[in-house]
Amino acid sequence: MKIERPRGTRDFLPGEMEKRREVESRMRKIAESFGYREIATPTFEHLELFTLKSGEGIVDEMYVFADKSGRELALRPELTAPVMRMFVNECSVMPRPLRFYYFANCFRYERPQKGRYREFWQFGVELIGSDSYLADAEVINLAYQILENLGLEFELQVGHVGILRSLLSPLGNDKASKIMRLVDKGDEEGLLDYMDDIGVGQDLKEKVLSIIDLKGDEGVIDEAKELISFDFTHLENLSGILHELGVEFEFNLGIARGLDYYTGVVFECYAEGLGAQKQVCGGGSYELSSLFGGPKAPSTGFAIGFDRVCEVCNVKAKKDVTIAVISLRGFESHAFRIANRIREKGLRVVVDVMGRSLKKQMSFASEIGADYAVIIGPDEIEKGVVTVKNMETQEQKTLSEEEAITTFLSRTKG
Ligand code: HAM
């Protein structure tokens, strides 16, 4: 019986894994250069961690199960709530701000399509302990640098959920959250129907529709000021610093985000080439620490949809030099010994484990794209040398082991 993998999951072959590792390592390097340090949290958590504040959208999509003791658990759909749980449990007394990053798989029971999976990976950061616009500026700048470094063509949009939330505050939290969700989905018809259903007045309805349509440069803030009395200083300061840093963006006051915990600045990045699932990064500021029983800790962060980024970026995996050590029957232990010696220099070496003839070993070396073949037989052993064949030029030389290693190493540097 042939067993297929579950819907919405993927297998990654070596070529793809090598590309993914290269992308991951670039992301890590940039996050680390900003002082962020890696953390890891469990793959599953108590269900309530996510039901407290992540919002209905995410809760409906969760993989939930009971363990053998009947505890309700969930596979993590995202990492912000787990990171804040960890912060409250383990690090609330550490000097602030804290800068964490993570690279981990997440699970959402969504309808699979291009760029949307049931198991996917996020590369994200959380900057914990500051409510300054500088904190938002840092994480937006970091996300921007990562996507730029990967050569992605993308658009960055910045908004502030506080504006809509303050407008909706007379409706109470539940109704406001439902409206935010409809705005996030871009479901204008559903939004109008819902506002009618709950009896939202004409004036408020028009203001909501006007705010969510505000998109563009600084002029957007002036227009918003006409519609609502709100302190725009944070957004104005953020905009100033992003401009000075050369971070290109546009305002979009209709960004509502699919998760309920955001309180202030929010942002999203969209890349071409992904169809409907073009959002490659999403984030913003929030306060979850006090909700999880810890001290107040205003925070901000983002998560990059790692799989989506890998699909559209042109990063090539670095190709390591590969050496195939080929031996005549009876000389296998010599082949193993020489292979180990070359590996000690950090090179990649394969040896025959199939008991194949010299000819078959050679054609396998060529099939796997080996750069060199090192051939050993009785003559080589007697003279203390190896025969090195450059698989590309077919040129063959007799060298000492040291000379052979120097040749391979010079190829890795070139
Ligand atoms: P999110 O927008 O739900 O935010 O997810 C972040 C990114 O994960 C999305 O922009 C998207 O690229 C990717 N993503 C989401 N769902 C899928 C899926 N089914 N398949 C493939 N990729 C997907 C969060 O998760 C927040 N925790 C981000 C954050 C961190 N906010 C503050 N700190």
Q: What does this entry look like structurally?
A:
By secondary structure, the protein is α+β, with helices and mostly antiparallel strands. The protein folds into 2 domains: 14-312, Bira Bifunctional Protein, Domain 2 (BirA Bifunctional Protein, domain 2), CATH 3.30.930; 322-409, 3-Layer(aba) Sandwich (Rossmann fold). Helix content is 41%, strand content 22%. The protein is built from 16 helices and 17 strands. The protein has helices spanning 14-33, 47-51, 56-60, 80-91, 133-149, 161-168, 173-185, 188-197, 202-212, 219-227, 233-244, 306-312, 332-343, 358-367, 378-383, 401-413, and strands spanning 37-38, 44-46, 64-66, 72-75, 98-107, 119-128, 154-160, 215-216, 250-252, 262-271, 279-286, 299-305, 322-327, 348-351, 372-376, 386-390, 396-399. It has a 9-stranded mixed beta sheet with strand order 1-5-6-12-11-10-7-9-8. The protein has a 5-stranded mixed beta sheet with strand order 14-13-15-16-17, with helices on both faces. It has a 3-stranded antiparallel beta sheet with strand order 2-4-3. Strand 13 (322-327), helix 13 and strand 14 (348-351) form a beta-alpha-beta unit. The chain is elongated and about 95 Å long. It starts with 13 loop residues before the first helix and ends with a helix. Histidyl-adenosine monophosphate binds at residues 78-80, 108, 110, 115-117, 120, 122, 124, 126, 258-259, 279-284, 301-303, 305, 307-308.
